[in-house]
Structures are given as C-alpha cells and as structure tokens.
Design brief:
Length: 80
Amino acid sequence: AAGKEKFAMMCAACHGPDGKGNQMLGAPNLTDDVWLYGGNEATIIETINAGRQGKMPSFKDQLSPEKIHVLAAYVYSLSN
C-alpha cells in the first residue's frame, strides 16, 4: 500500500494512475515487460534516484532510500 501511495504522489502525473504511461510526455508504460533501461529492482532504484536525462527528474532529494526502495518494488510489481 505504501508503494502505491508513493506512486500516486510522485509518478502518476506522468506515468498515469495505473502506470500505463503517457507517450505525449515520453513516460513509458510500466505495466508491460518492455523496459527501456532494464526491469530489475536495482535499475528501477537507479532510475528513481538519478532520473533519466531530459525524460524524468531525480527523486533522491525528495525521497529517503527506504521510500525509494518501496516505490521501486511497487513499480516492479506492476509488470510482474
């Protein structure tokens, strides 16, 4: 539940409330098994921490490592 709440607050504006993405914004669908940068939890954590240049902001200054881990686990669960 914590991951879903964090997703709604931090990610849904671009990726949509269901994680299906928004092509107009360049936000990929997170519910399929097509990963632009790799779909393991470590890579998802890296993406949340560092962002993706010109595509997604970094969230490392807004979220603790624990919250990033919970969010990454939720994002991972969307496609698995």
